[in-house]
Amino acid sequence: MDLLPRSPGEFGSARYWDRFFRQRGQRPFEWYGAFPELCPVLHKYVRPRDKVLVVGCGNSELSEQMYDVGMCEDIVNIDVSDAVIRQMQERSRSKRPKMSYLLMDMLQMDFPDAHFQVVLDKGTLDAILTDEEEATLAKVDKMFAEISRVLQVGGRYLCVSLAQAHVLKKAVEYFSQEGWVVRVHQVAGSRDKQQFVLPVFVYVMTKFRKIPGSAPQILEICPEEQDKPMRVETVERLVAAVKDRQHYALLCSQLSKPPCGEQVSLDLCDKESGRPRYTLHVVDSPSVKPSRDNHFAIFIIPQGRETEWLFGTEEGRRQLATSAGFRRLVTVALHREQHYEGMAGIQAELSGKVMELAPPGLPARQQVPFVSVGGDIGVRTVRHRDTSTLSGEYVIEDVKGDGTCYFRRLIFLRNRNVVQSEARLLAPMPLPGQKKRRKDKKKPSPTEPPADIDKSYLCCEHHKAMVAGLCLLGGPNPLPGTLLAVLVVGLGGGSLPLFIHDYFSQAHVAVVEIDPSMLEVATRWFGFSQDDRMQVHVSDGLDYVAKLAAEVSVLLPAAPALYDAIMFDVDSKDLTVGMSCPPPAFVEKPFLQKVKTTLKPEGVFVLNLVCRDAQLKESVLATLREVFPLLYARRIEEEVNEILFCQPSPEGRRDPTELEARARALEGALRQPGRPWDSSYVLADMLQAIKIL
């Protein structure tokens, strides 16, 4: 039996609905939204003494159920189908004497003005507004005008809808321009399998007298999990808020099916500000053998550690889920703009929402564990926030790492999941002769991070590799006392040039930084300073190198501007390119030839390459090979970074044994008595995985 219309326009045809209800018979037809789900919303807006009009009633049981539970009895139902009106009159005549069914077109109703307190529409607007053709919109305008006419001031038009964007926009625009208050409720869905995946909404349009002039629009949305409505500023934002909830429903539907390899991510926003409060990633591990207690868990990422490979990459999260031994793990990242009341507070806040992301087959009343590293939510202290004209908004924050270590980080908020610069903070040491605190004195807070920078520690693995690349320099090993001229393009927090300056006592380091704000950041927050061996030039690296190359070309063969090492660690401001470091102009052939010109024949050019586009990466490598005869590469494990070591002469090639010997000799010289050295930093290890391209 084919009950579907031949075209969407037939939904507005009395002939179609007569045929539909004759063929369907006595079985009630509910578009969507069962009475138990709609009841909490209807109870707010329908009073027992209200006179209620139901437009396009069909043979839905909604009116009968409202009548039977005592919500309201004075209900008038209208429809254009004679067949269904006869059917419903017969069904309710003896049981519900105060309720009536009338054959009537809602586009031309016989009721007097201001006759009803409530007009209820369940799916009728959705059935009529099937497209945005001129004739359809004119019909809807007529429908709205008739509803407005028969409603009293203060009356409510309740429209149950799937809230397709064009339907919602039309209804909200029409009634808000008439001066009505518009509120959209999301109906709490049944936990059983529903006919419709998309959520059901109820538009509540409350009639007010139209005020001459431009009265402010009152638009609100009331999500299913809260009673308090949230005000929105424009129709577009209201439509977008509804669309977000529809996407979430589709996501939950997807997650209710057997696990798949793809990771799903979503933001949960703060109810007051609308800003992201939690970022969730749902990770399935089908390879984990199922047991009673390993179906589902929630992992809270400690504050400030969301950028780490294990938590911040898809592969890392997959490894985390597998090692944790759960078939579905939801990782939860906490946002720096938000305040959290510890693990217990987060668990109370998220428990209801994360259960909507539970895997199929989760046993009833299964307790879902909330876990974290060390059992707490970590420590994050935002030290400074500002905006640079070149780099955009940025923050300086101190975060707690593993154990008792704290780290200071520079984050550009345009790319908030990437740590731009990082330094370890020193634990405070008592001054010579300083007495220990008395037991009764107040102890410093264990969560208060220290303030001094540990300049001996290179946090970034790619910085360690770049320093190790100095072993490739020609001639004798670049021992700390060897006179070196080093050019670093890209300052950031200054960790790389600081390390070279402090550990290579005869090195003269020139740093080029395009953003003057970064020089202030490095100086104020990362312990950076200038002296006669360390000078910062605020300039575009492209212009600075081009100028040097021009000077060298004029002064050859006795050019004073030649460098032993040139290092590029500069990020791209253009996030649309598949290469975030360096900007594309820095690896174009004419510019690379200028770099080569400013480099000593036995020198080394070190480039931090971060490129996710495989084709673009191959192009960059090909260009580098055209300019530099000798090219080494060192891939940084668990990161996208690849460090490229380029030498202008093929005679600089060294076998692995010689390279390891030079690395061990250099490290031995750098480990001077009384000077701290990070024991995990082994130069030879940094060069072990190096390969010639």
Automatic annotation (TrEMBL):
Which spans does this entry mark as compositional bias, Basic residues? 434-444
Query: Which classification does the entry list for the species?
Result: Eukaryota, Metazoa, Chordata, Craniata, Vertebrata
Task: Name the SUPFAM superfamilies for this protein.
Answer: S-adenosyl-L-methionine-dependent methyltransferases (SSF53335)
Using the UniProt annotation, give all residue ranges assigned to the region (Disordered): 429-453
Gene Ontology biological-process entries: methylation
What protein name applies here?
A: eEF1A lysine and N-terminal methyltransferase
* NCBIfam families named among the record's database cross-references: MFS_SpdSyn (NF037959)
Listed A to Z, the keywords are: Methyltransferase, Multifunctional enzyme, Transferase
Which Gene Ontology cellular-component terms appear in the entry?
A: cytoplasm
Q: Where is the Methyltransferase domain?
A: 50-172
Q: Which family does it belong to?
A: Belongs to the methyltransferase superfamily.
Cite a single GO MF annotation.
methyltransferase activity
